[in-house]
Amino acid sequence: MILAITSTLFCIVTIKFLITLANLARHRVHITPKISLNRTKWPTVSIIIPARNEEDNIETSLSSLMKQNYPKDRFEIIVVDDFSTDSTRAIVDTLIDVSSVNVRCISGRKLPPNWLGKSNACMVGSQQATGEYLYFIDADTKSEPLMLQSVIHFASRHKTDLLSFNPRQAFTSTVEKITLPGIFLSIASYMNFKNANDKSKADAIANGQAMLFTRKSYDAVGGHTAVANEISEDIAFAKLMKMCGLKAFWAFADKLMSTHMYSDFGSIWAGFSKNMNLIVNCQSRFQVLGEFIKTNIIAWAAPVMLLVSTHHFIGDPSSINTYSLAINALMLLASIVTYLILIKELFIPARYALTVPLGISLQSLLILNSYRLSKSNKITWKGRALS
Protein backbone atom coordinates (compact mmCIF):
# COMPACT_ATOMS: atom_id res chain seq x y z
CA MET A 1 0.00 0.00 0.00
CA ILE A 2 2.82 2.43 0.87
CA LEU A 3 4.47 1.72 -2.48
CA ALA A 4 1.21 2.41 -4.32
CA ILE A 5 0.64 5.69 -2.49
CA THR A 6 4.24 6.83 -3.01
CA SER A 7 4.08 5.89 -6.69
CA THR A 8 0.85 7.85 -7.10
CA LEU A 9 2.26 10.96 -5.42
CA PHE A 10 5.47 10.87 -7.45
CA CYS A 11 3.46 10.28 -10.59
CA ILE A 12 1.33 13.36 -9.87
CA VAL A 13 4.47 15.51 -9.48
CA THR A 14 6.00 14.16 -12.69
CA ILE A 15 2.82 14.36 -14.78
CA LYS A 16 2.21 17.93 -13.59
CA PHE A 17 5.73 18.77 -14.79
CA LEU A 18 5.09 17.15 -18.18
CA ILE A 19 1.71 18.88 -18.57
CA THR A 20 3.39 22.22 -17.83
CA LEU A 21 5.90 21.54 -20.60
CA ALA A 22 3.13 20.53 -23.00
CA ASN A 23 1.30 23.81 -22.32
CA LEU A 24 4.52 25.73 -22.90
CA ALA A 25 5.00 24.03 -26.26
CA ARG A 26 1.42 24.90 -27.21
CA HIS A 27 1.93 28.60 -26.50
CA ARG A 28 5.33 29.03 -28.15
CA VAL A 29 5.56 31.84 -30.68
CA HIS A 30 8.15 31.53 -33.46
CA ILE A 31 9.81 34.31 -35.41
CA THR A 32 10.43 32.79 -38.83
CA PRO A 33 12.66 33.97 -41.69
CA LYS A 34 10.78 36.69 -43.53
CA ILE A 35 11.47 38.56 -46.75
CA SER A 36 9.29 41.66 -46.96
CA LEU A 37 9.11 42.50 -50.64
CA ASN A 38 6.43 45.17 -50.27
CA ARG A 39 8.22 47.25 -47.67
CA THR A 40 9.94 50.34 -49.06
CA LYS A 41 11.21 51.97 -45.88
CA TRP A 42 12.86 50.19 -43.01
CA PRO A 43 13.44 51.72 -39.56
CA THR A 44 16.98 52.49 -38.50
CA VAL A 45 18.53 49.98 -36.13
CA SER A 46 21.53 50.20 -33.82
CA ILE A 47 22.95 46.78 -32.98
CA ILE A 48 24.96 46.93 -29.77
CA ILE A 49 27.34 44.13 -28.77
CA PRO A 50 28.89 44.28 -25.28
CA ALA A 51 32.18 42.38 -25.53
CA ARG A 52 34.56 41.46 -22.73
CA ASN A 53 37.24 38.89 -23.55
CA GLU A 54 35.26 37.39 -26.43
CA GLU A 55 38.13 36.45 -28.76
CA ASP A 56 36.65 32.97 -29.25
CA ASN A 57 33.26 34.29 -30.34
CA ILE A 58 33.38 37.85 -31.65
CA GLU A 59 34.54 37.08 -35.20
CA THR A 60 31.67 34.67 -35.84
CA SER A 61 29.11 36.94 -34.23
CA LEU A 62 30.19 40.19 -35.87
CA SER A 63 30.77 38.63 -39.29
CA SER A 64 27.25 37.22 -39.32
CA LEU A 65 25.77 40.60 -38.42
CA MET A 66 27.74 42.31 -41.17
CA LYS A 67 26.04 40.00 -43.69
CA GLN A 68 22.47 40.96 -42.84
CA ASN A 69 19.94 41.25 -45.65
CA TYR A 70 18.92 44.73 -44.52
CA PRO A 71 19.48 48.14 -46.14
CA LYS A 72 23.08 49.05 -45.29
CA ASP A 73 22.22 52.68 -44.68
CA ARG A 74 19.52 51.70 -42.16
CA PHE A 75 21.56 49.87 -39.55
CA GLU A 76 24.77 50.30 -37.60
CA ILE A 77 26.77 47.96 -35.41
CA ILE A 78 28.43 49.21 -32.24
CA VAL A 79 30.84 46.89 -30.44
CA VAL A 80 31.58 48.02 -26.89
CA ASP A 81 35.01 46.74 -25.88
CA ASP A 82 34.54 46.34 -22.13
CA PHE A 83 38.21 46.42 -21.08
CA SER A 84 39.08 43.14 -22.81
CA THR A 85 42.50 41.74 -21.99
CA ASP A 86 42.59 39.34 -24.94
CA SER A 87 42.52 39.97 -28.69
CA THR A 88 38.84 40.94 -28.89
CA ARG A 89 39.57 44.53 -29.93
CA ALA A 90 42.12 43.53 -32.57
CA ILE A 91 39.72 41.04 -34.15
CA VAL A 92 36.96 43.65 -34.30
CA ASP A 93 39.29 46.26 -35.81
CA THR A 94 40.35 43.80 -38.51
CA LEU A 95 36.73 43.12 -39.43
CA ILE A 96 35.92 46.83 -39.50
CA ASP A 97 38.70 47.40 -42.04
CA VAL A 98 36.96 45.13 -44.57
CA SER A 99 33.36 45.95 -43.69
CA SER A 100 30.90 47.45 -46.14
CA VAL A 101 28.45 48.34 -43.37
CA ASN A 102 28.66 50.90 -40.59
CA VAL A 103 30.59 49.19 -37.79
CA ARG A 104 32.27 50.94 -34.88
CA CYS A 105 34.22 49.71 -31.90
CA ILE A 106 34.12 51.96 -28.86
CA SER A 107 35.71 51.62 -25.46
CA GLY A 108 33.68 50.97 -22.36
CA ARG A 109 33.69 53.27 -19.39
CA LYS A 110 35.01 52.62 -15.91
CA LEU A 111 32.48 50.72 -13.86
CA PRO A 112 30.47 53.22 -11.76
CA PRO A 113 29.33 52.32 -8.22
CA ASN A 114 26.27 50.03 -8.09
CA TRP A 115 26.63 49.02 -11.74
CA LEU A 116 27.31 45.58 -13.17
CA GLY A 117 29.58 45.17 -16.17
CA LYS A 118 27.21 44.09 -18.93
CA SER A 119 24.60 46.76 -18.19
CA ASN A 120 27.34 49.36 -18.01
CA ALA A 121 28.72 48.37 -21.42
CA CYS A 122 25.23 48.33 -22.94
CA MET A 123 24.54 51.79 -21.56
CA VAL A 124 27.72 53.12 -23.16
CA GLY A 125 26.64 51.65 -26.49
CA SER A 126 23.14 53.10 -26.22
CA GLN A 127 24.56 56.59 -25.71
CA GLN A 128 26.35 56.34 -29.05
CA ALA A 129 23.44 54.74 -30.91
CA THR A 130 21.35 56.64 -33.46
CA GLY A 131 18.71 54.06 -34.42
CA GLU A 132 14.97 54.05 -33.94
CA TYR A 133 15.51 50.57 -32.54
CA LEU A 134 18.23 49.50 -30.09
CA TYR A 135 19.15 45.86 -30.52
CA PHE A 136 21.40 44.37 -27.82
CA ILE A 137 23.02 41.12 -28.94
CA ASP A 138 25.52 38.94 -27.09
CA ALA A 139 28.89 38.14 -28.60
CA ASP A 140 28.36 34.37 -28.40
CA THR A 141 25.62 34.38 -31.04
CA LYS A 142 25.55 33.73 -34.78
CA SER A 143 22.87 35.38 -36.91
CA GLU A 144 21.40 34.17 -40.18
CA PRO A 145 21.26 36.71 -43.07
CA LEU A 146 17.49 37.25 -42.71
CA MET A 147 17.61 37.66 -38.93
CA LEU A 148 17.46 41.45 -38.70
CA GLN A 149 14.80 41.89 -41.37
CA SER A 150 12.64 39.14 -39.84
CA VAL A 151 12.92 40.44 -36.29
CA ILE A 152 12.17 44.04 -37.28
CA HIS A 153 9.20 42.90 -39.36
CA PHE A 154 7.88 40.90 -36.39
CA ALA A 155 8.40 43.75 -33.92
CA SER A 156 6.68 46.24 -36.22
CA ARG A 157 3.73 43.95 -36.89
CA HIS A 158 3.22 43.14 -33.21
CA LYS A 159 4.01 46.70 -32.06
CA THR A 160 6.43 45.52 -29.38
CA ASP A 161 8.34 47.84 -27.07
CA LEU A 162 10.71 45.04 -26.11
CA LEU A 163 11.10 41.93 -28.24
CA SER A 164 13.32 39.19 -26.88
CA PHE A 165 13.74 35.66 -28.11
CA ASN A 166 15.41 32.36 -27.55
CA PRO A 167 17.95 31.39 -30.26
CA ARG A 168 18.86 27.83 -31.16
CA GLN A 169 21.38 26.34 -28.77
CA ALA A 170 24.48 24.92 -30.44
CA PHE A 171 26.12 21.92 -28.78
CA THR A 172 29.67 20.89 -29.62
CA SER A 173 30.94 18.84 -26.69
CA THR A 174 29.63 15.67 -25.07
CA VAL A 175 29.26 17.34 -21.68
CA GLU A 176 26.97 19.98 -23.22
CA LYS A 177 24.77 17.33 -24.80
CA ILE A 178 24.55 15.43 -21.51
CA THR A 179 23.79 18.33 -19.18
CA LEU A 180 22.26 21.29 -21.01
CA PRO A 181 19.05 19.74 -22.40
CA GLY A 182 17.89 18.79 -18.90
CA ILE A 183 18.87 22.18 -17.50
CA PHE A 184 16.97 24.02 -20.25
CA LEU A 185 13.94 21.75 -19.83
CA SER A 186 13.84 22.32 -16.08
CA ILE A 187 14.21 26.09 -16.46
CA ALA A 188 11.39 26.16 -19.01
CA SER A 189 9.03 24.52 -16.52
CA TYR A 190 9.16 27.68 -14.39
CA MET A 191 7.98 29.89 -17.27
CA ASN A 192 4.56 30.83 -18.60
CA PHE A 193 4.88 31.82 -22.25
CA LYS A 194 1.21 32.75 -22.61
CA ASN A 195 1.16 35.12 -19.63
CA ALA A 196 4.56 36.57 -20.51
CA ASN A 197 3.07 37.96 -23.72
CA ASP A 198 -0.06 39.29 -22.01
CA LYS A 199 0.29 42.92 -20.89
CA SER A 200 -2.25 42.35 -18.11
CA LYS A 201 -0.19 39.57 -16.49
CA ALA A 202 2.84 40.04 -14.25
CA ASP A 203 4.80 37.11 -15.72
CA ALA A 204 7.81 38.34 -17.68
CA ILE A 205 10.45 36.55 -19.75
CA ALA A 206 13.41 37.92 -21.66
CA ASN A 207 16.77 36.69 -22.87
CA GLY A 208 19.76 39.02 -22.68
CA GLN A 209 21.32 37.35 -25.72
CA ALA A 210 18.87 39.20 -27.97
CA MET A 211 16.80 42.19 -26.84
CA LEU A 212 15.21 44.61 -29.30
CA PHE A 213 13.83 47.88 -27.90
CA THR A 214 12.21 50.81 -29.54
CA ARG A 215 14.40 53.77 -28.67
CA LYS A 216 11.40 55.62 -27.29
CA SER A 217 10.46 52.83 -24.88
CA TYR A 218 14.05 52.17 -23.84
CA ASP A 219 14.50 55.81 -22.86
CA ALA A 220 11.06 55.94 -21.22
CA VAL A 221 11.98 53.31 -18.62
CA GLY A 222 15.43 54.77 -17.99
CA GLY A 223 17.53 52.51 -20.19
CA HIS A 224 20.12 50.30 -18.53
CA THR A 225 20.35 52.76 -15.66
CA ALA A 226 17.07 51.29 -14.43
CA VAL A 227 18.59 47.79 -14.21
CA ALA A 228 22.18 48.81 -13.47
CA ASN A 229 22.79 46.36 -10.62
CA GLU A 230 20.52 43.52 -11.73
CA ILE A 231 22.30 40.22 -12.38
CA SER A 232 19.39 39.09 -14.58
CA GLU A 233 18.94 42.43 -16.30
CA ASP A 234 16.93 40.83 -19.10
CA ILE A 235 14.11 39.63 -16.84
CA ALA A 236 14.27 42.88 -14.88
CA PHE A 237 13.78 44.82 -18.12
CA ALA A 238 10.78 42.71 -19.14
CA LYS A 239 9.16 43.22 -15.73
CA LEU A 240 9.85 46.94 -15.85
CA MET A 241 8.34 47.26 -19.31
CA LYS A 242 5.14 45.56 -18.20
CA MET A 243 4.96 47.63 -15.01
CA CYS A 244 5.12 50.76 -17.16
CA GLY A 245 2.29 49.54 -19.37
CA LEU A 246 4.58 48.76 -22.31
CA LYS A 247 4.56 45.62 -24.45
CA ALA A 248 7.27 43.07 -23.75
CA PHE A 249 7.12 40.05 -26.04
CA TRP A 250 8.90 36.69 -25.83
CA ALA A 251 9.40 34.31 -28.75
CA PHE A 252 11.63 31.66 -30.30
CA ALA A 253 13.88 32.22 -33.30
CA ASP A 254 15.84 29.02 -33.79
CA LYS A 255 15.99 29.53 -37.58
CA LEU A 256 17.36 33.06 -37.27
CA MET A 257 20.04 32.91 -34.60
CA SER A 258 22.12 30.34 -32.75
CA THR A 259 24.27 30.58 -29.67
CA HIS A 260 27.04 28.55 -28.09
CA MET A 261 26.99 29.45 -24.43
CA TYR A 262 29.34 27.03 -22.67
CA SER A 263 31.78 24.37 -23.86
CA ASP A 264 32.86 22.55 -20.68
CA PHE A 265 31.45 21.63 -17.29
CA GLY A 266 33.34 24.37 -15.47
CA SER A 267 31.85 27.12 -17.61
CA ILE A 268 28.37 25.56 -17.38
CA TRP A 269 28.62 25.47 -13.58
CA ALA A 270 29.97 29.01 -13.29
CA GLY A 271 27.62 30.48 -15.88
CA PHE A 272 24.38 29.16 -14.43
CA SER A 273 25.49 29.58 -10.82
CA LYS A 274 25.54 33.35 -11.18
CA ASN A 275 21.76 33.65 -11.42
CA MET A 276 19.94 30.30 -11.36
CA ASN A 277 18.10 31.07 -8.12
CA LEU A 278 16.85 34.31 -9.71
CA ILE A 279 15.72 32.53 -12.88
CA VAL A 280 13.52 30.17 -10.86
CA ASN A 281 12.66 32.84 -8.27
CA CYS A 282 14.00 31.05 -5.18
CA GLN A 283 14.78 33.67 -2.55
CA SER A 284 14.65 31.67 0.69
CA ARG A 285 16.16 28.48 2.07
CA PHE A 286 12.76 26.81 2.19
CA GLN A 287 12.09 27.60 -1.46
CA VAL A 288 15.52 26.33 -2.48
CA LEU A 289 15.08 23.11 -0.49
CA GLY A 290 11.60 22.57 -1.89
CA GLU A 291 12.77 23.04 -5.47
CA PHE A 292 15.74 20.74 -4.87
CA ILE A 293 13.47 17.94 -3.66
CA LYS A 294 10.83 18.47 -6.37
CA THR A 295 13.38 18.62 -9.18
CA ASN A 296 15.08 15.40 -8.14
CA ILE A 297 11.72 13.64 -7.83
CA ILE A 298 11.02 14.66 -11.43
CA ALA A 299 14.46 13.48 -12.52
CA TRP A 300 14.67 10.13 -10.78
CA ALA A 301 11.28 9.01 -9.43
CA ALA A 302 10.19 7.24 -12.61
CA PRO A 303 13.20 4.90 -13.10
CA VAL A 304 13.80 4.28 -9.38
CA MET A 305 10.15 3.58 -8.57
CA LEU A 306 9.83 1.32 -11.61
CA LEU A 307 12.73 -0.79 -10.33
CA VAL A 308 11.22 -0.97 -6.84
CA SER A 309 7.72 -1.79 -8.09
CA THR A 310 9.11 -4.45 -10.47
CA HIS A 311 10.89 -6.10 -7.55
CA HIS A 312 7.68 -6.12 -5.49
CA PHE A 313 5.61 -7.40 -8.40
CA ILE A 314 7.98 -10.32 -9.01
CA GLY A 315 7.72 -11.29 -5.34
CA ASP A 316 3.97 -10.73 -5.11
CA PRO A 317 1.96 -10.13 -8.31
CA SER A 318 -1.04 -8.78 -6.40
CA SER A 319 -3.42 -6.19 -7.81
CA ILE A 320 -1.89 -3.39 -5.72
CA ASN A 321 1.63 -4.25 -6.92
CA THR A 322 0.35 -4.53 -10.48
CA TYR A 323 -1.08 -1.02 -10.11
CA SER A 324 2.26 0.31 -8.81
CA LEU A 325 4.16 -1.34 -11.66
CA ALA A 326 1.76 0.02 -14.27
CA ILE A 327 1.69 3.59 -13.00
CA ASN A 328 5.49 3.75 -12.73
CA ALA A 329 5.94 2.27 -16.20
CA LEU A 330 3.50 4.86 -17.57
CA MET A 331 5.36 7.64 -15.77
CA LEU A 332 8.71 6.53 -17.22
CA LEU A 333 7.27 6.14 -20.72
CA ALA A 334 5.75 9.64 -20.65
CA SER A 335 9.07 11.07 -19.45
CA ILE A 336 11.08 9.31 -22.17
CA VAL A 337 8.72 10.52 -24.90
CA THR A 338 9.06 14.08 -23.59
CA TYR A 339 12.84 13.82 -23.49
CA LEU A 340 12.97 12.45 -27.04
CA ILE A 341 10.89 15.38 -28.30
CA LEU A 342 13.25 17.79 -26.51
CA ILE A 343 16.36 16.16 -27.96
CA LYS A 344 14.88 16.30 -31.45
CA GLU A 345 14.14 20.03 -31.00
CA LEU A 346 17.77 20.60 -29.98
CA PHE A 347 19.18 18.72 -33.00
CA ILE A 348 21.32 16.29 -31.02
CA PRO A 349 21.39 12.45 -31.17
CA ALA A 350 18.43 10.62 -29.64
CA ARG A 351 20.64 8.66 -27.24
CA TYR A 352 21.07 11.81 -25.15
CA ALA A 353 17.43 11.54 -24.12
CA LEU A 354 18.69 9.01 -21.56
CA THR A 355 20.87 11.66 -19.90
CA VAL A 356 18.21 14.37 -19.58
CA PRO A 357 17.56 13.41 -15.91
CA LEU A 358 21.22 14.18 -15.17
CA GLY A 359 20.73 17.73 -16.46
CA ILE A 360 17.50 18.14 -14.50
CA SER A 361 19.23 16.98 -11.34
CA LEU A 362 22.20 19.27 -12.04
CA GLN A 363 19.81 22.20 -12.28
CA SER A 364 18.73 21.53 -8.69
CA LEU A 365 22.38 21.69 -7.58
CA LEU A 366 22.80 24.94 -9.52
CA ILE A 367 19.88 26.43 -7.60
CA LEU A 368 21.60 25.51 -4.34
CA ASN A 369 24.96 26.90 -5.42
CA SER A 370 23.49 30.06 -6.87
CA TYR A 371 21.59 30.75 -3.66
CA ARG A 372 24.71 30.06 -1.58
CA LEU A 373 26.84 32.43 -3.67
CA SER A 374 24.20 35.17 -3.61
CA LYS A 375 24.02 35.08 0.18
CA SER A 376 27.80 35.08 0.58
CA ASN A 377 28.32 37.85 -2.01
CA LYS A 378 30.76 35.67 -3.96
CA ILE A 379 29.20 35.67 -7.43
CA THR A 380 31.76 36.55 -10.11
CA TRP A 381 31.74 36.56 -13.91
CA LYS A 382 34.58 37.31 -16.28
CA GLY A 383 36.78 38.51 -13.45
CA ARG A 384 34.24 40.86 -11.88
CA ALA A 385 32.14 40.58 -8.75
CA LEU A 386 28.40 40.47 -9.37
CA SER A 387 27.30 40.66 -5.76
TrEMBL record:
UniProt-annotated location(s): Cell membrane
InterPro entries according to UniProt: Glyco_trans_2-like (IPR001173), Nucleotide-diphossugar_trans (IPR029044)
Keyword Protein biosynthesis: no
Transmembrane parts of this sequence: 6-25, 297-314, 320-342
Keywords for this protein: Cell membrane, Glycosyltransferase, Membrane, Transferase, Transmembrane, Transmembrane helix
Molecular function (Gene Ontology), one example: glycosyltransferase activity
Sequence ranges assigned to domain Glycosyltransferase 2-like in this UniProt record: 46-220
One of the record's GO cellular component terms: plasma membrane
Pfam families tied to this protein: Glycos_transf_2 (PF00535)
Record protein name field: Glycosyltransferase 2-like domain-containing protein
